[in-house]
Each structure stands twice: as C-alpha cells, then as structure tokens.
Amino acid sequence: MPIYTDQLHRKIEIKEFPKRIISLVPSQTELLFDLGIGQNIVGITKYCIHPKEKVKKIAKIGGTKNFDFDKIINLKPDLIIANKEENYKEGIDKLEQQFPVWVSDINDINSSFEMILKIGKIIGKQTKSKELVNTLTTDFEELKNIISVFKNYKTLYFIWKEPFMIAGKGTFIDDILQRISLENATIQNRYPVLNEEEIKKINPQIILLSSEPYPFKEKHIQEFSQILPSAFIKIVDGELFSWYGSRLRYSVSYLKELQKDIELYFKKFN
Questions:
Q1: pLDDT tens-digit map of 74-89
Q2: What stretch(es) of the chain map to CATH 3.40.50.1980?
Q3: CATH of 3-125, one of 3.50.30.40, 3.30.565.40, 3.40.50.1980, 3.30.1300.10
Q4: Rounded to an integer, what is the distance from CA 226 to the centroid of its chain?
Q5: Is the pTM of this model over 0.90?
C-alpha cells in the first residue's frame, strides 16, 4: 500500500484509493464532499453538519472528543481523517492500533492549504484539490491587497463563556484576524481563559463573539458592553473564522464586509 505523511509527520499506509472513510472533523468532512467523494464517507461526527442534506444519511460515531469505538469498528474504515486539536490523543492512539489514521495540524491558512492538497492526493482528487487551493490563494491575496484606512485595532475573539475563553496566538483564528489587519490583543498562546478584570485591563477596541463553539447571541452584546462600553462588539460567523476546509471559499467576502463594518464604526469617532 502507498505510504503517506500526515501533518504530524507520521508515516501512514493507506489503501489506494480508500473506499470507506470516516471523518472526525466537521470542516474536513465538508471538504471530502466538495472534492467529490461523498459516496465513500461511511462515518462522521454529530458535529459534521455540512453539506446539510447529505450528512443526514451517514452514520454518526459520536463527538469529536468522544468516539463510539464499537460503531467505528463495525464500519470497517480503510481511512480515518482526524485533527490534532479538534480530536483527542487517547482516542486517536486507540484507533490507529486498528486503522490508518491521517491527522491534520492546522494553525494558519498555509497549513490549511497543505492539508487540502495532501488529502486530495490520498483520495485521488489532486486536480480538484489544486483548483480549490488556487482559488482560495487568489481570494486571500485579494483580501491582503485591500488597504484598510483603519488598521491594527486591538481585538479579542471570544469562543466561550463561563469561563470567558478567547483565541490566542498561534491559532487559525489568529491568522484570520491578522489578514484583516486586526491585532490580537492577547499575548498568550492557544486558548487562554480571562476574567472580567483581565478583559478590562486589556481594553480591546474590538470584541468579536463567535457563533461557535459557544453560541453567542445578541443578548451577549449587551453583557459585554457593560464591561467595555466604547468597544465595537459583534457576533461573527464562527465557521467562516475557524473552518479550515472548503468553507474558506465563503470567508473572504464575509471578512471584507466585517472590515467595512469596523471602519464605519470607527469613522464616527474621527
């Protein structure tokens, strides 16, 4: 069998081409469908929600961090696609004792593109994966070339409440923020927890409340405005900030609109 290298630099023997695939990551599930091999996906997590009508018919093997091992064994996969951050090491270690498990490790746009190309090669969809990456590269270059009048606003991007948790340095979300000239206001890595006093001390000019994994709603805007009355506060689409597969094709236009909203807000004070 061919040997492939995943993004953890592990060597994995994978059947050419896999016909029974389990995806343990929502954004990578959608990518597999968009690359044209939906018929080969036999198992997904309960959080794999796109494409909506097609995923309904596929067996669910639990969550991203609590697999139903018996179901996975019964599905007899010849490839399992996972992610270092979204899944859990103990579960992956157990699965790879019986099945080939290819693990992605994503912390920026470039590693996302690498993942798309590597998966495209494994499943025999190299042309489609290259076309997708070429399109996304052009889109993000266009975003980079837009010169914003207002740059480097201190920003906190919240992914959880009780306790407050934000996306810190070294995350995919941090890379997206930089691409629209927003300065991540924390110096901490990964996903630090903050209390209300720490948020006030950081004093960000922009607060973005993600729609996932915590489902922030409009009512939370008022709560945050009590903490930072002068900040720009907005609910944002978490999928378009953190899904690192083919959903990125919708991200650039969304980010452009967000940038416009921010500029309009701060023009009021200049």
A1: 999 999 999 999 999 9
A2: 3-125, 144-267
A3: 3.40.50.1980
A4: 30
A5: yes
